[in-house]
Each structure stands twice: as C-alpha cells, then as structure tokens.
Amino acid sequence: MDLGLSKKINPQDWQLEICGLIEKPLKLSWKELNALKMISIKADIHCVTTWSITDSQWHGVSCMEIIKLCSPLKSAQFVLASSYDGYDTNIPISFFSAADSMLALFYSGKELPHHYGGPVRLLIPSLYFWKSAKWLKKLEFLKDDRKGYWEQRGYHSRGNPWEEERLEG
Ligand SMILES: Nc1nc2c(c(=O)[nH]1)N[C@H]1C(S)=C(S)[C@@H](COP(=O)(O)O)O[C@H]1N2
Ligand SMILES: [Mo]
C-alpha cells in the first residue's frame, strides 16, 4: 500500500540526504551506506488497519549509526523522513533512535525488493507501519513536529500501536 513509484531506483543513483538540526549535514551514497555497521532484527509490524506481520526479518543500518554520524543538536526533537515518491512522515527522535529502528536493506535474507521500498526503507517497528518510509531519500532533523503525508490527512502524529494512536494527534 503506497503512493506508487513505478520506476525502480538503481542503487548507484540512490542517495540519502541528512540535514536539519545536526552538527554534520551529509549525503550518503549506496556504497557509503553499505560500509556502515549493520544489524539484524526480528520485528512485529503493526499496520493501522489492524493486521500485523509477526517475526519478519530485517537487516540494515541502525538509526543509531546515523545519529552517531550526524550528531543531532539538543534542539532536534523530530525526524521528517521523505521518499523518492514524494511521501513523507514524521517520527519523534526517541522512536527514531530506538534500538530496532533502522535503514533496512534486506528483508528475509534477500535484498529489499522495490515493492517493499528497496533499495532502502526506513523501518520503525515501534510505530505503525505508515511511519516506515519506503524508498528513503532524506532525513531532516527538526525542533518542532511537522506532519507528513498521512498525518496531514488525519493520522496520528506519533502513531504508537500500543496506545492505538491511529487518528488525529
Ligand atoms: N515512500 C512511501 N513509503 C510508505 C508509503 C508510501 O506511500 N510511500 N506508505 C506507507 C504505508 S501507509 C504503509 S501501510 C506501508 C506499507 O508497506 P508495504 O508496502 O511494505 O506493506 O508503507 C508506508 N511507507
Ligand atoms: Mo498504510
């Protein structure tokens, strides 16, 4: 379920911009991303329409690695993730920096397929799945919350599944 990006992104053309309230703004190429330390996680995914995928296997770069690289300022409280299809979504920095939050490059042991958001998707297992931006293009660190695509259309700004934060917040 997505806005639809018909054109596949060639990993060689993929780039991630990291900007906003950070000490070191940077751009990461596919090669640079792959040189970072990777982690594997098993996650339960919670979709807003109540289905969940249990025990899915993901491999990629921990969001903590990104935080270490760019050094967010104390004033940075939110991350706005934007994608190659024009989608965006906001994430409180406390959830972005959770141990299981990652830039996923592999799913079930295989390179992340295009329809799952490959080559690189943000994965925030502690929030509803609409927060996991596919075809990730940019991470912007912000002081104030800025709603993304679904949040502007009535979805909850935080989206914690344990609090059932589905709509308007
Ligand atoms: N770039 C992008 N990411 C996106 C979306 C989108 O439209 N574009 N949709 C979100 C929503 S609403 C859901 S439910 C999940 C669906 O992920 P899936 O296609 O892997 O099941 O992706 C999220 N990430
Ligand atoms: Mo969704």
Mind summarizing the main beta sheet? 5 strands, mixed
Shape, please?
globular
Q: Which residues form runs of ≥5 with pLDDT under 50?
A: none
Cα-to-Cα separation, first versus last residue: 22 Å
- Distinct compounds present: the ligand Nc1nc2c(c(=O)[nH]1)N[C@H]1C(S)=C(S)[C@@H](COP(=O)(O)O)O[C@H]1N2, molybdenum atom
Structural class: mainly beta
Order of helices and strands: EEHEEHEEHEEEEH
Distinctive features:
single chain; 169 residues; mainly beta; five-stranded mixed beta sheet; five-stranded antiparallel beta sheet; 10 strands; 12% helix; globular; binds the ligand Nc1nc2c(c(=O)[nH]1)N[C@H]1C(S)=C(S)[C@@H](COP(=O)(O)O)O[C@H]1N2; binds molybdenum atom
Description:
There is one protein chain. By secondary structure, the protein is mostly beta strands. The protein is built from 4 helices and 10 strands. The strands form 2 sheets. It has a 5-stranded mixed β-sheet. Strands 3, 4, 7, 8 and 9 form a 5-stranded antiparallel β-sheet that branches. A hairpin with a 2-residue loop joins strand 7 (102-107) and strand 8. The protein is globular and about 40 Å long. The mean pLDDT is 94. The site of molybdenum atom (MO) has 3 residues, from loops.
